[in-house]
Every structure is written in structure tokens, then in C-alpha cells.
């Protein structure tokens, strides 16, 4: 999806209107298809930027929020045994999982901006965002899991693979 062309086609006024629309509470809308497309574009852009970031910078040194330490600590307290390398969607989406995740997520209201916004999350951290490797999660779930993946070395594979590809291209030229 080339979101740059879509956003450019909106023009300044359209982009401003879209930004305003995305800032309104969910209760202000029904099931508006255009709004869903805007949300999907925003989530896709976030995923693309994040993947490019972990591909380019050693993930161990990334700081995703000003509250990374608190998010990581609380995440591992609440989910000490959650395997984050390859996520089981049921551990995020089932009724039981939602009951466990809800108090974790809600403690970050007012701490992490847009903590409950929808975000794309990779299931297998060694793979890119694809239809089969991506689920919809809240922003705080994304932060908790990706901060843990970065700190625990799970995202090193993506970074190292990209570094190796860059080096091979450099060697060929």
C-alpha cells in the first residue's frame, strides 16, 4: 500500500480533516468505511516505520517511549512466561486473555499516549509484517511485546539480516 500517494491526494485540507477525524473519540463514529481505511493506513505506517527502525538500528539500544522501563517491568510481572518470539494469537485475543490484558493495559492510561489505539503486531518476530504474520493489538500491547523483544534479543534477527543484506550489496558494488 503506497500511503504517501493516498495522503498526498488528500491535500492539506483533507489531511488536516483526516487528522482531526482520527483524534475524535470512537463513540463519535459508527462503522465508517473511510475512517477504517484511515486507521488502517495509520497502523500500516506505524508498522512500516517500526520495522525499518529495527532493521537499521540495533534493537537493544532502541527506546520506544519515555516509559520503556516501567512498561517492560510491569509486562514481565504480569506475563513472566509469555513467549514473545512467536506469539499465539489466543494469548492476546481470547476472552480469558483479554481479561488478563485489560488491567495491564489500563494502568498505562495517562502514562502512554494513545495506549489503547489499534496497532499492527508481528506474530513471529523474525518475519516482516505480512497478512499471515500480523494481528491487530493495542498500542500498549505492541510496546510491551516489542520492548521485551528488543531487550531480550528477539529482534536481533531482523537487524542482523538487514545488516548482512546491506553488506552484501556494498560488497557487490
From TrEMBL:
It comes from the Eukaryota. Pfam families: PBDC1 (PF04669). GO terms for cellular component: cytoplasm. Residues 35-159 form the Polysaccharide biosynthesis domain. InterPro entries: PBDC1-like_dom_sf, PBDC1_metazoa/fungi, Polysacc_synth_dom. Signal peptide: none annotated. This is Polysaccharide biosynthesis domain-containing protein. It comes from Sinocyclocheilus grahami (Dianchi golden-line fish).
